[in-house]
Amino acid sequence: MAVRYLWRSGSKLAAAATLVGGGAAAAAIVTSEDPSTTFKICTAVPVRLLRDSFTAALIAFDYEYSLWGLPEGSFERSRAKHEVHLRCALRLQELCFQNGGIYIKLGQHIGQLEYLVPQEYVQTMRQSMLNRCPVSSYEQVCEVFMKELGRMPHEIFVEFDPVPLASASLAQVHAARMHDGKKVAVKVQHTHMTDTAMADSATVELIVNVLHRCFPSFDYRWLVDEIHESIPKELDFLCEAKNSEKCLDNFKRLSPHLTGYVYAPKVYWNLSTSKLLTMEFIDGAEITDVSAIRRLGIKPNEVAKLVSQAFAEMTFKHGFVHCDPHAANLLVRPVPSGKRNIFGKKKPQLVLLDHGLYKDLDFTTRTNYAALWKALVFSDANAIKENSVKLGAGEDLYALFAGILTMRPWNRVIDPAVDHLVLEGNDGDRSELQLQGSSVDTFLIIGKVSSEAVAQTKMLQKKSVLTRLSIWLEEILLEARLLTMQIALWLLQLRRALSG
Description:
By secondary structure, this protein is an alpha+beta fold. It contains 19 helices and 11 strands. It has helices at 2-31, 35-66, 75-99, 102-110, 119-128, 138-149, 153-156, 191-194, 197-214, 221-234, 237-254, 290-295, 300-318, 363-377, 381-390, 398-406, 410-413, 429-461, 465-499; strands at 159-160, 166-167, 171-177, 183-189, 262-263, 276-280, 285-286, 320-322, 330-334, 348-352, 358-360. It is globular and about 70 Å long. It starts with a helix and ends with a helix.
């Protein structure tokens, strides 16, 4: 019944779009300042809508037919559900590749939603979306330059490599050299993909709403809300440039102890627009490339701690958080000052790239979140529940919420043992970083920064002498607990080294 309704809705939508959209499209093309672009949009959107409707109907039919009559909780239903999840994830993947643009970004976003969408979708998107991003031709790049700056790349730069260094869902990056000899990175938007972004966003919303009406249990409208919020920001490179400067300024003002250790590339504002961004070129190793980090003379463990420190400071103190911290967006290089640690190893500097997507955390959310993480690190079950509820997890879901945040089962979360949040070892370089203790170091850092944020909040709320004394004693107890955990960590590392 629901599938028939979906097909009927799709047919009516297609008919209405043909009758109304045809005349509107013709009028838009005639009156547009850029008829060729408008023509592309008016011809591409209906095709994409048809693909969306067909894929959505096929997915809906597959779920209804494949699970029909299978009792809830049965082995047969679990197996059938796994198979239909996998088939439909592949269909969605193919739709993303066919439509491109924000659909690639949507697929990448789904790949990060572990615990929130079925695992089959997460794995399918992770395995493909980062490796098959579109690439604009050099002619298309030149079109962007002419539209945005009125000049060709070779008229602006002494050198401009027509082959991109990297390509993502919405843009690609080229290396270039200024007339003063400085090397820069030029980020150029895929305009042939992003011209239809707003229409694509509306189309996705329509399909999700129709599916939810047919199948009330299918409710991913929150994902549409995320797209509506993030896509306009990511399509405006001037917003990205402002974010990068604000991020760096926050570290200078609110986390001065990290000044010099966290960096964002300089923006060349005179060569930047909403669709073209020129930045300082940075050479460095990706944070997951352990071999490259070692070749730079840097200890991988120090990199792990620096990343944890930087993002803890952004989350609990700045309230302005970089929301796309995958390996390609986090580079490591030795600090330009040449500082070294006590063992003679070079100190790392974390370089943050791609500042298109940030999240502002209001004071109340930031404070409750800091209190929650303090409770998680110190296994305080009552405080975990209290602050999870304040953050909207509800009386019955706080344990699940804690599990999602720490990626640990509830019995590990509330285990008072010092290593209760340690990751289990596995193969690969990531495991090597974990086994060196960075997993425990990370939670020690989060515990310290979140606790400092909680103390600062209390100090702002009540400035009496008694309150200050209470906070001072609390900080002494905190430092003692952290020292105990650090000693336990050293003993754990020693035990592992001796057993190895």
